[in-house]
């Protein structure tokens, strides 16, 4: 009985030790494995991802990958590399230190997964210019650090989720050139740091919400080529732009 008691006391200690050691070993490796798994799901006709080859080496020397001094992947920036495939094979939960995810002008298609909220350190998200479709995931509102959101010239549809109002660090939001419908959510007025807003060339309707006047840092706003009606709200005069 006393032995069992001793063992039970020991178990939390082992768990604590493992808890301390596992992330240190995994730093970089879990990310490398996730990137290789994603690569396997893609067609890489320009062989842009050739350097992504060895799961036991650090991904920090791979093309398009940047790391912190501690070997955590902080940026994944793949622009115009013709990688063709979806985001469903990318395990976002493997990248807790990722600050910048820019996958622009490739041949990605399919939806932007809800699992994107696992990128808890994300500051910049850019996916311009490819065939990504479906709605803007509601879970995006969980990305508390997000300052730059660039989802222009995709094939996004559905409404702008009200959860966008939770992105209180947002400075720039570009959603132009999609098929977004419905009203501009009033929650947008909560984005007090937003300086640049581009919702042009969508199918948005209704009036421009007066809450836009609460965005005191706003310097640029493009709303052209939608079905918006009514007048610019008086409240806009408190914004920097006027
Ligand atoms: C993978 O990387 C490890 C560590 O850098 C190295 O020891 C191993 O030889 C490499 N394997 C291949 C197949 O390149
Ligand atoms: C990534 O690393 C490259 C090469 O070291 C550097 O030129 C670039 O500025 C870095 N980008 C980011 C976003 O840190
Ligand atoms: C990407 O791959 C899909 C499926 O294999 C194919 O139908 C599509 O044409 C490819 N896109 C481009 C731009 O090559
Ligand atoms: C992301 O986190 C959610 C919980 O917020 C979890 O249900 C989901 O499986 C995660 N996605 C991935 C790709 O790990
Ligand atoms: C995010 O936004 C929704 C809708 O506005 C709200 O109900 C929810 O409480 C918000 N969540 C957080 C964590 O702020
Ligand atoms: C806009 O600001 C006013 C005054 O500060 C506040 O009463 C109102 O709730 C705000 N609206 C939004 C949508 O944040």
Automatic annotation (TrEMBL):
Pfam families named among the record's database cross-references: LRR_1 (PF00560), LRR_8 (PF13855), LRRNT_2 (PF08263)
Segment forming the signal sequence: 1-19
Cellular compartments annotated: Membrane
Domain Leucine-rich repeat-containing N-terminal plant-type: 30-68
SUPFAM superfamilies on file: L domain-like
Keywords on record: Leucine-rich repeat, Membrane, Repeat, Signal, Transmembrane, Transmembrane helix
Keyword Lipid biosynthesis: no
GO cellular component, one term: membrane
The keyword Repeat is annotated on this UniProt entry: yes
Domain of life according to the entry: Eukaryota
PANTHER family: SOMATIC EMBRYOGENESIS RECEPTOR KINASE 1
Protein's UniProt name: Leucine-rich repeat-containing N-terminal plant-type domain-containing protein
Source organism of the structure: Digitaria exilis
């Amino acid at each position: 009985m006393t032995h069992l008691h001793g063992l039970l006391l020991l178990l939390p200690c082992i768990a604590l030790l493992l808890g301390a050691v596992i992330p240190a070993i995994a730093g970089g490796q879990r990310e490398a494995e996730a990137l290789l798994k994603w690569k396997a799901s893609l067609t890489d006709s320009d062989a842009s991802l050739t350097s992504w080859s060895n799961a036991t080496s650090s991904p920090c020397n791979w093309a398009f990958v940047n790391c912190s001094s501690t070997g955590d992947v902080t940026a994944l920036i793949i622009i115009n590399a013709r990688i063709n495939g979806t985001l469903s094979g990318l395990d976002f939960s493997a990248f807790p230190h990722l600050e910048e995810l820019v996958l622009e002008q490739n041949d990605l298609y399919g939806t932007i997964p809800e699992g994107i909220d696992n990128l808890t350190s994300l500051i910049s998200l850019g996916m311009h210019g490819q065939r990504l479709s479906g709605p803007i995931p509601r879970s995006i509102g969980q990305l508390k650090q997000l300052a730059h959101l660039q989802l222009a010239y995709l094939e996004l549809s559905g409404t702008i989720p009200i959860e966008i109002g939770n992105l209180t660090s947002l400075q720039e939001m570009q959603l132009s050139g999609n098929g977004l419908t419905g009203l501009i959510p009033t929650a947008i007025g909560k984005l007090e740091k937003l300086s640049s807003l581009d919702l042009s060339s969508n199918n948005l309707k209704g009036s421009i919400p007066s809450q836009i006047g609460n965005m005191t840092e706003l310097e640029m706003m493009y709303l052209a080529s939608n079905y918006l009606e009514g007048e610019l709200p008086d409240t806009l005069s408190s914004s920097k732009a006027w």
